[in-house]
């Protein structure tokens, strides 16, 4: 099980890196989101899975059974999913607006914030 | 409760400011009042902590190993204080609206959200909670980057998002692995747990991932490109807050984690950090030397100054940590006042590009004087606050035998001087290319001058009478690397 999850994480990371290195801004966003998903899997893997022992304590116990899955990482991963989803929503709107305003989704064509100087020895002049 | 207040007050202000978003004037006053309340809370917290004390609160009544703990000690209290003071100064500056305010009314809520997030980062003693505050910081900065802006801002926000998101994910992955290995998230618990012998092999890998995430967020060489690509699209007051504070917060986290939690690390970490620090200094200052746009010059100087702060961490000693804290306080103030001065220069001379402005010395002698104070502090001309910061830092590098690091840090100072002299000669000394500096628009610059003057006075006091602050910062950082140099 752990090995399978490990393989899955590596495949997702590989795909995410490939997409993030693209010039297409939408692909970059999807890539970063996939990388976030892979990291969430790592968080999830930090507290064993494939355990059927419930993480409950009887009133006299002060530590959970050794084989039980750690419930804290599940809480952590939920928080991380919520945060990355919020950031994804923001980033998608940003990407759509950017594409609409720039008229292109090629990151190489975007030179408004950092204009290319007409002469390499003369640094660019911004409009204000 | 006092420990929570630097987080709760700005959050409350943000909520109220959202409600007042259609009433621009009252929202502005509320915002200033909220920042003033935050400053009072920070002062009270500072008083509570003293110089060596620790105040902590375990949220929800869950005791530290399980619950989330907020801790204020000398180091975090002074950082909260400087955050609050800078927030108030920037909001007062914003009153004179040297740049058009946005129309949606979302600037002030985001601003206070950012202050809350920074306070959260500074006060938390829990690794995952730290991640949450960093994400809040990321989303509010992104909001401030795009609010009321056009294509240029969106482009900048995209670059900022892509690289900072990568940093946050590296950090989260490291948190997961550290938790998996130690079963601890609390700083105190972690610093106990990482001492176990059986963890010695795997731990440096996790910590290296953690440090790379923060180095990216702190704009260290070679991952600083997002900073000069995005910061210059912000308006001057926001640039002062974000440029002055955000990267330094990452440095603060590195200082705390390296100095207090993961103390006993292999020496190669510190060696690598030291060279990264030097490379950051040099590449930042060279980028600044190339540019002629005031905002871009100063943005590259942020990168360069981050190098000095990283050097303080690389030295890994109580004296290095103390120099780092002093330098950080000086740098936040100097950087912010330079950005604010650049905003006034833009307003009175008509442009940010040094080739298209001039004649400010006869037109605005007070501004020229303020620029000299802030500029000399950044360079480190004695007796300015930057001189003491660099002096402590270079002294400690020479004491430890790192002559190359200390020497390069001094050499970078000359290039910084070149940049400041360039701004002085082009912006203040030479005549305005369009004739008289009457290109100036008629604006209310009173509040803007007031906040810059207060910052300049703070810098002057730090420079002329540095004893109390040096003593405070060495007391506050006494617990860092207390076990000795690795």
CATH C-level class of chain A: Mainly Alpha
Q: In the CATH hierarchy, what is the architecture of chain A at level 2?
A: Orthogonal Bundle
* Strand order in space, largest sheet of chain B: 1-2
What is the arithmetic mean of pLDDT of chain A? Answer: 86
Helix content of chain A: 55-70%
How many E strands of chain A? Answer: 0
Query: What coarse outline of chain A follows from CA principal-axis ratios?
Result: elongated
Q: What is the chain-wise order of helices and strands of chain B?
A: HHEEHHHHHHHHHHHHHHHHH
Order of secondary-structure elements of chain A: HHH
Q: In percent, how much strand structure appears in the residues of chain B?
A: under 5%
Radius of gyration of chain A: 22 Å
In round numbers, the mean pLDDT of chain B is 90
Q: What can you see in these coordinates?
A:
The complex is a heterodimer of chains A (128) and B (486). With 128 residues, chain A is mainly alpha-helical. Chain A contains three helices and no strands. Chain A has one domain: Helix Hairpins. Helix content of chain A is 56%, strand content 0%. In chain A, helix 1 packs antiparallel against helix 2 and helix 2 packs antiparallel against helix 3. Helix content of chain B is 73%, strand content 2%. Chain B has a two-stranded antiparallel sheet. In chain B, helix 3 runs antiparallel to helix 18, helix 5 runs antiparallel to helix 6 and helix 12 packs parallel to helix 16. The longest helix of chain B is centred in the middle third of the chain and has 32 residues. Chain B is globular. The two termini of chain B are 37 Å apart.
